[in-house]
Amino acid sequence: MTSSSASVPPLPLIRALGWFRDGLAALHRRLVPGHIALLELQMTGFLTQGIHAAAALGVADALVDGPKQPDELARTLGVSEDGLRRLMRLLISFDIFSQRRNGSYALNGMSQALRSDADVTLRDVILFFGSDFHRNHWTHLADAVRTGHSVGPALDGLPFFEYAAAHRDIGDMFDKAMTSISTLSTEPLFAAYDFGRFGTLVDIGAGHGSLLTEILRRTDAARGIIFDLPDVVAELPAQVAKLGLAERLSVEQGSFFEAVPKGGDAYILKHIIHDWSDEEAERILRTVRAAMEPDACLLVIEIVLPEHQRPHAGKFIDLEMLVNATGRERTAAEFRNLLARSGFLLTRIVHTAAPDCVLEARPAR
């Protein structure tokens, strides 16, 4: 059986808190003059770059050993004390760091996630989203909306994934960002879904294999296959051996547009389908379907867009897909239709305490 973390709050509580938070935010926007509410939202872009600056400078890592006075922290980081004070003043006002009564800066619940060594770290994804490369693409959001297509080919000469493969500085930054995001959903996934009921799991487009590695750590008998492009998985066999999982976890390379390993009881596609258009996603799903036995299970782990008008993480990521990829986030109905066209029957959707859901599907008879 899969173990789950007692630290993950119950899903009904998460939803209730979300509704309460959204309600308060909506009330605030309606009570203040419209132009003030709009300006406040626009200026949150400054805050996101402030968070990026703290991640790039390593502020959280410098505070791991305990609080530091501004002058001491500035010397540790090699930055201007005045500049640091001004940055921290903004971040502290949003509870991203804390300041003690004696003036020293300290970590708190949010800034712990900026540590590079935290169990749940968002540092790498913040570095990617705040990078010059990513920000430059988002300045062309209007162009993406105007054309309905990614801006990458026009700006970089190549679609994003081809560009990332050819420019490994961007590719490595992106790979680390995706691993960083994965840590956010790990505990909610294990709390909501029992991966331990499958004998052999195949993770398609697994990246660095963090999810499958964690599944095997938490199960006694399961075996796994990590599958991704050759340049992505080249160093993984040595890492698997260091983890003591070589007898249960293998690494195979290839393209999910061509063929994937056979013999799995469950096939995982985590944060893959949303990167691609319906036509490309259908190609991937049909490739996976061709490798599956009739009683095998497909697990698509993605955000499922809700059909309400409240804020939701998927609505942000959907625009990210528009700007930087050919894909999109999808509603439950859109997933059901896509899976049906690809030879699958959607059997259930398992919601988690994170934005991700597990869409469980079986080969259509």
Could you characterize what this model shows?
This protein has 365 residues and is α/β, with parallel strands linked by helices. The protein has 2 domains: 11-115, Arc Repressor Mutant, subunit A (Orthogonal Bundle); 135-363, 3-Layer(aba) Sandwich (Rossmann fold), CATH 3.40.50. It has helices spanning 11-31, 34-57, 59-62, 70-77, 81-93, 123-129, 132-138, 141-147, 152-156, 160-166, 168-192, 210-218, 230-233, 236-242, 278-291, 313-324, 332-341; strands at 98-99, 105-106, 200-204, 223-228, 249-253, 266-270, 297-305, 330-331, 344-351, 356-363. Strands 3, 4, 5, 6, 7, 8, 9 and 10 form an 8-stranded mixed sheet that branches. A two-stranded antiparallel ribbon has the order 1-2. Helix 11 packs parallel to helix 12 (210-218). Residues 1-6 have low confidence and may be disordered.
Summarize the structure.
50% of the residues lie in helices and 14% in strands. With 365 residues, it is of the alpha/beta class. It has two domains: 11-115, Arc Repressor Mutant, subunit A (Orthogonal Bundle), CATH 1.10.10; 135-363, Rossmann fold.
Name the features.
365 residues; alpha/beta; Arc Repressor Mutant, subunit A; Rossmann fold; 2 domains; eight-stranded mixed sheet; two-stranded antiparallel ribbon; 14% strand; disordered N terminus
Number of strands: 10
Total helical elements:
17
- The mean pLDDT is 93
Helix content class: 40-55%
| Gap from first CA to last CA | 29 Å
Largest sheet: 8 strands, mixed
Radius of gyration: 22 Å
Query: Which parts are unreliable, with pLDDT below 50 for 5 consecutive residues or more?
Result: 1-6
User: What is CATH's topology name of the largest domain?
Assistant: Rossmann fold
The helix/strand series, from N terminus to C terminus, equals HHHHHEEHHHHHHEHEHHEEHEHEHEE
Strand content: 5-15%
Coarse shape: globular
